[in-house]
UniProtKB/TrEMBL annotation, chain A:
Region (Disordered): 953-977
Family per record: Belongs to the type I cytokine receptor family. Type 2 subfamily.
Name assigned to this protein: Oncostatin-M-specific receptor subunit beta
An annotated Gene Ontology molecular function: cytokine receptor activity
Membrane topology: Single-pass type I membrane protein
Naturally occurring in which organism (per UniProt): Neophocaena asiaeorientalis asiaeorientalis (Yangtze finless porpoise)
Top-rank taxon: Eukaryota
Fibronectin type-III domain boundaries: 330-424, 429-524, 621-733
Source taxonomy: Eukaryota, Metazoa, Chordata, Craniata, Vertebrata
SMART domains noted in UniProt: FN3
Gene3D superfamilies according to UniProt: Immunoglobulins (2.60.40.10)
SUPFAM superfamilies from the UniProt entry: Fibronectin type III (SSF49265)
Automatic annotation (TrEMBL), chain B:
Signal sequence residues: 1-26
Keyword Repeat: no
Subcellular location: Secreted
GO biological process: immune response; oncostatin-M-mediated signaling pathway; regulation of cell communication; regulation of signaling
Source organism of the structure: Neophocaena asiaeorientalis asiaeorientalis (Yangtze finless porpoise)
Any one of the GO CC terms: extracellular space
Start-end of Pro residues biased regions: 150-164
Keyword annotations: Cytokine, Disulfide bond, Secreted, Signal
Positions with biased composition (Basic residues): 201-211
Protein's UniProt name: Oncostatin-M
Family membership: Belongs to the LIF/OSM family.
Domain of life: Eukaryota
Length: 977, 248
């Protein structure tokens, strides 16, 4: 009982105290100090995590409180953050609060304290702060290892465009630490002796493997770094839509945008959530997702697509009715059936949608890539459509797509099928033209035709039939079959007229015939050629209409240049046409094209009407003519370029420019025009405005001067190149006169020489016969003409020869002895005719030296007189005392008479002659060796020629020692007075 | 990226297993020279930095001044050339096989960084190890009578890679590892080159002494006759000499 009483008393006291306490709490604020404050560091998020409790609360009491938190860095006095945290607190509840630091926590020690205040509406009075808790330190540096250099934050994941603060902690306390962002140095703020911070603003994505930031000690191997993972910003999915092909499965698609995947972060994920059903699915693909349609006939769907990565979430929603999102599957089995030349039936199938659903199918027919027919067909499963108005032998493409008829949402994908229509006979006659020419005297027709266009060929042309009908002999036909793809043939005709039919054939049949009439008579080519101007569109050719009944016109030309084989082209024109534009992709500027206009008569015969030539675009001549220079005089020369073909030039040649570079200081001739060449040299220019004038005489030049000239043609566009001037030097003014004199003289001399040569025998006989006749000798006339008193004929009478012996020379043919007087012995052998001068001394026992005179001063007569014998000569005896003919004296007399007749009187003492031998005696100077046998010809001195010299030059006295050489003879000759 | 790697991994595993099964089931090359030539060619291929190191440096952004020079092999990570040269042939092959096993393991960890190159190089390493196996068998068959020699203690296999503390360290470590791998394969190629040279010298020497042919040649099946001493160009106890030196 007592125990019960004590217990009751105690309970009441406690209850009382509790009531008292409650009344105190609710009536006035109580200081509730936070207790058990603990701080931890989370390096991953760079967060300080705080947890504490408030023990002072009563049981079951909940109070709304405010906790003021202070954070200091490096030291407690350096408060960097103050924040009030409001929450409802229970007794002994562990409270949590986190704070993310911009500066990596590893780089600085942080100090945290807090105080609290009751902020509950149940307490009427305003509260007051409790005391501060003690400072709690959070120093992550304690967790670092012993490396000399650390860089933080490690592996931080941020979005592109964020600002990031990095820092380093150095244990080596050196200032020479540099930091780099992707190799580029960055600069920051030193926070502490060993800590520096760098703020990277608006960081950008560089690579999936992260952005490298590193710090290193200069001139050392210490390196520290981090990888900053910069993610692209997650984009909101675009073009989000859902549709079904079979009302069973919905397929939702979207454009995901950039991939935000990094080494540190996987690519963004996509989740599809349907709000009416409350279902969701994690999509396996980044741009589409399948959703199974519920079996409970849900018609309306509200889908939300959620994209998320580590940093961000994005979502997009759509609301739709299922039947309005039907996208049928692609039709199948599209096939042609019963394909003809102009018709074909197409069949196809579709996948059914639901029960008895109808699909609208669109059938398109394409030819050469263009839609030419379009038809809509409503079907359930099988489709069929007849295509008509098709072209024969043509490739078509049929394609089909279908849509849900109940509510059009989208066409299905297209299915295509190619097919070809069958062939038909060609629908048009080939375009035929001809070219007439004479080959070996026979008229030959070259037939050309153009391949039929695909539209008209209606199939592959296999061959062409050419039927030649002789109009003069109608019963005669000739049929030629020319396999395709030939487009020409040649026919040799006679002078008759022919009608030619040309048809094209394919596998089905022939085309209509093209008819042309040709005649064996040559065409009239006497048509004047005109000019035609080229434009950008081609050549605008016009002609005068043919007088009469022309059924049409044909313009004919060659596509290529003139120097290439002609690719004949033609254009058919109607009877009322008098102009047309001829265009061709083969036309080139600077090429002359010739056009011929024919008129087609009612008899289908062509007549040449006009000829025209033109250039699509005229160009300046590219080459200059080869100029030949002639008739060069001291004042002029002639230029000629007659071989220059004007027709093959790149423009109509309008004339020529003759450029002449005058010598320095010389003015241009009035006919020339002074002009400046591109290289700034002055030149004289003469313009020839007649393209047919191909010669030019350059006049009024200076003799002995150098000129340069060039001849260049010009067209309407310009002239030829001024690159190669030709130099010419005018000759001396008199040189040509001299040439006129000298040349005839040389000619005359040559004539004389030739005559002399031809008449040498006659001349020899006349002037220097082997047996000279002094009276016939021209020397006499020479002597007379010179009238030299010192030169005269030796008078034999004046000579006192010792002996004269005439010896026959071996050249018997030339030396004529008096045959009648020859002894038989003398005629047995031929000896030179010699005069032997024999001494008169008694002791002379042998024949003296002999002299063979072959001198025109001795004529044949003398020789005749001198029989080859020894004439004893006595010096004392006068010449006239010599015997008559047989004696030397008589001989001399005879000679004297002849000579005196011609020479006249010569003063005594001045008419002395000395004979100079031309050949010395082989034994000259040796008297003892004189030949003892005078007739021996070997010992003779043979005188071919003698020259008379004045006597004074040979005044040496005679001497016995005188030899029988020429000198000796001269000495002996002194006796001839 | 991770998903791609995961997708590729089964393929590479399948290919690798297929290759290994082929090598395991296929017969080894019986000719020593052909096998050695194959090993040398494979070593030449594997020492080429363009297969692994260069793309890795480029992909990781380490090809910047200040970082590239830190991509150097850590000393001791791989056996040095001198150490390889100091091993017996069997020891050399065992060391090579063990080292390449670790390389293969490490390369698998690099799958994320170099998915395609890693796959190709992995196949090369597997083929190389297969040839090592064949060469070892060839050498062993020719020295069955001799007592097996314990493996020459070399620098030891590369320790398994510790989990990287952070991505930057991981990049550098992987880069250094790849650098060391290529250098190691270069050293292997050098040693294998000397194998060929020393064999030639041995062959010429053996020709002087005996007409017997070396194992691996077609004449290997015919034992030497007439009591001629069997000459073996690669004696187990003979160390490879540096190039240009004759064995004493």
């Amino acid at each position: 009982m007592a125990v019960f009483a004590v217990f009751q008393t105690t309970f009441l006291l406690a209850l009382l105290s509790l009531r008292t306490y409650e009344s105190e709490v609710l009536s006035e604020p109580l200081p509730l100090t936070p207790e058990s404050l603990k701080v931890s560091v989370n390096s991953t998020c760079q967060c300080l995590h705080l947890q504490w409790t408030v023990h002072s609360l009563a049981y079951h009491q909940e109070l709304k409180m405010v906790f003021q938190i202070q954070i200091s860095r490096f030291k407690t006095s350096n408060v960097i953050w103050v924040e009030n945290y409001s929450t409802t607190v229970k007794r002994n509840q562990v409270l949590h609060w986190s704070w993310e630091s911009e500066l990596p926590l590893e780089c600085a020690a942080h100090f945290i304290r807090m105080r609290s205040m009751v902020d509950d509406a149940r307490i009427p009075k305003p509260g007051f702060w409790s005391n501060w808790s003690s400072w709690e330190e959070a120093d992550a540096q304690n967790m670092l290892g012993h490396d000399p250099l650390f860089v933080f934050p490690k592996d931080k994941l941020v979005e592109e465009g964020s600002n990031v603060t990095i820092c380093y902690v150095s244990r080596i306390h050196q200032d020479n630490i540099s930091c780099y962002l992707e190799g580029v140095q960055i600069y920051g703020e030193q926070l502490d002796r060993s800590v520096s911070a760098f703020e990277l603003k608006n960081v950008s994505f560089i690579r999936e493997k992260g952005t490298n930031v590193f710090c290193k000690v200069d001139q050392g191997g210490v390196l520290g770094g981090i990888v900053l993972f910069v993610s692209k910003v997650l984009e909101e999915p675009k073009d989000f839509s859902c549709e079904t092909q079979d009302l069973k499965t919905l397929t939702c698609t979207w454009d995901p945008g950039s991939d935000t995947g990094l080494t540190k972060q996987p690519s963004q994920s996509y989740t599809l959530f349907e709000s009416f059903s409350g279902k969701k699915t994690l999509c396996k693909h980044r741009n589409w997702c399948d959703w199974q349609v519920a079996q409970d006939s849900q018609e309306t769907y509200n889908f939300t697509l959620l994209a998320e990565n580590y940093l961000r979430k994005r979502s997009v929603s759509i609301l739709f009715n299922l039947t309005q999102r039907v996208h049928p599957m692609t039709p199948y089995n599209l096939l042609p059936k019963n394909v003809g030349a102009t018709e074909a039936t197409m069949t196809w199938k579709v996948h059914s949608i639901g029960n008895n659903s109808t699909l609208l199918c669109q059938l398109e027919l394409l030819a050469e890539g263009k839609v030419i027919q379009q038809s809509n067909v409503s079907i359930k499963v099988n489709g069929e459509y007849l295509l008509s108005e098709l072209e024969p032998d043509t490739e078509y493409v049929a394609r089909v797509r279908c849509a849900y008829t109940n509510h059009f949402w989208k066409w299905s994908e297209l299915i295509s099928q190619k097919f070809n229509t069958a062939e038909a006979a060609p629908s048009e006659a080939p375009d035929v033209w001809r070219n007439l020419k004479m080959v070996s005297g026979h008229p030959t027709v070259s037939l050309f035709w153009k391949p039929l266009s695909k539209v008209h060929a209606n199939g592959k042309i296999l061959f062409y039939n050419v039927i030649v009908e002789n109009l003069d002999k109608p019963s005669r036909f000739e049929v030629l079959s020319i396999p395709a793809p030939a487009s020409s043939t040649e026919l040799t005709l006679d002078q008759c007229s022919y009608q030619i039919h040309v048809t094209a054939h394919n596998s089905v049949g022939p085309s209509p015939a093209s008819v042309i009439v040709v005649s064996g008579d040559p065409e009239n080519e006497e048509v004047e050629q005109g000019r035609v101007n080229g434009t950008e569109d081609g050549f605008s050719v016009s002609w005068k209409p043919q007088s009469g009944d022309a059924t049409g016109y044909v313009v004919e030309w060659c596509d290529g240049p003139q120097d290439l084989p002609c690719v004949l082209q033609w254009k058919n024109l109607g009877p009322n046409t008098t102009s047309t534009v001829i265009s061709s992709g083969d036309f080139r500027p600077g090429v002359r094209y010739n056009f011929r206009i024919y008129g087609i008569s009612t008899k289908r015969m062509a007549h040449l009407l006009e000829k025209k030539a033109g250039y699509l675009e005229e160009l300046a001549p590219s080459d200059n003519p080869q100029v030949v220079m002639s008739r060069l005089t001291s004042h002029s020369f002639t230029l000629s370029w007659k071989d220059y073909p004007t027709e093959s030039q790149p423009g109509f040649i309008q004339g020529y420019h003759v450029y002449l570079k005058p010598k320095a200081g010389e003015q241009c001739h009035p006919a020339f025009e002074k002009t400046v060449l591109p290289e700034d040299s002055v030149c004289c220019k003469y313009t020839i405005d007649n393209p047919e004038q191909k010669t030019f005489v350059v006049e009024n030049l200076q003799p002995e001067s150098v000129y340069e000239f060039i001849v260049t043609p010009y067209t309407s566009v310009g002239e030829g190149p001024l690159d190669a001037f030709t130099k010419v030097t005018t000759p001396d003014e008199y040189s040509h006169t001299l040439i006129h004199i000298i040349l005839p003289m040389i000619f005359c001399i040559l004539i004389v020489m030739i005559i002399c040569y031809l008449k040498s025998q006659w001349l020899k006989e006349k002037c220097y016969p082997d047996s000279p006749n002094p009276y016939k000798s021209s020397v006499l006339s020479l002597i007379k003409s010179k009238e030299n008193p010192h030169l005269t004929i030796m008078y034999v009478n004046d000579c006192v020869p010792d002996a004269i012996e005439v010896i026959n020379k071996p050249e018997g043919s030339k030396i004529q002895f008096l045959g009648t007087r020859k002894s038989p012995t003398e005629t047995e052998f031929t000896k030179p005719a010699c005069l032997y001068l024999l001494p008169t001394e008694k002791n002379y026992s042998g024949p003296g030296p002999c002299i063979c005179f072959e001198n025109f001063t001795y004529n044949q007569a003398a020789s005749d007189f001198a029989s080859c014998g020894h004439f004893p000569v006595t010096p004392q005896a006068p010449p006239h005392q010599l015997g008559p003919l047989t004696s030397p004296e008589n001989l001399l007399k005879a000679l004297e008479q002849n000579y005196m007749n011609s020479l006249g009187e010569i003063p005594a003492g001045e008419a002395n002659l000395n004979y100079v031998s031309q050949l010395a005696s082989p034994t000259s100077g040796d008297k003892d060796s004189l030949p003892t046998n005078p007739p021996e010809p070997a010992l003779c001195s043979e005188y071919k020629m003698q020259t008379a010299i004045p006597l004074g030059l040979a005044s040496a006295p005679p001497s016995e020692n005188s030899s029988l050489s020429s000198t000796t003879l001269l000495g002996q000759g002194e006796h001839c007075r | 990226m991770r998903a791609q790697c995961m997708r590729r991994t089964p393929l590479s595993v399948i290919l690798g297993l297929l290759f290994l099964s082929m090598t395991a089931t296929s017969k080894c090359l019986g000719k020593y020279h052909e096998l050695l030539l194959q090993l040398r060619r494979q070593a030449d291929l594997m020492q080429d930095t363009s297969t692994l190191l260069d793309p890795y440096i480029h992909i990781q952004g380490l090809d910047t001044p200040g970082l590239k020079e830190h991509c150097r092999e850590c000393p001791g990570a791989f056996p040095s050339e001198d150490a390889l040269r100091g091993l017996s042939r069997q020891g050399f092959l065992q060391t090579l096989n063990a080292t390449l096993g670790l390389v293969l393991h490490r390369l698998t960890a690099l799958c994320q960084d170099l998915p395609e190159a890693q796959q190709l190089v992995g196949l090369n390493i597997r083929g190389f190890r297969s040839n090592i196996h064949c060469m070892s068998q060839l050498l062993r068959s020719s020295s069955e009578a001799e007592t097996p020699e314990p493996t020459q203690p070399g620098p030891g296999p590369t320790p398994p890679p510790t989990p990287p503390s952070d991505a930057f360290q991981h990049k550098l470590k992987s880069c250094r590892f790849l650098h060391g791998y290529h250098r190691f394969m270069h050293s292997v190629g050098q040693v294998l080159q000397e194998w060929g040279e020393s064999r030639s010298r041995s062959r010429s020497r053996s020709r002087r002494h005996s007409p017997c042919r070396a194992p691996g040649d077609t004449a290997l099946a015919r034992p030497c006759r007439g009591g001629a001493r069997r000459t073996w160009p690669f004696r187990r106890d003979r160390r490879l000499m540096p190039r240009g030196q004759l064995p004493r």
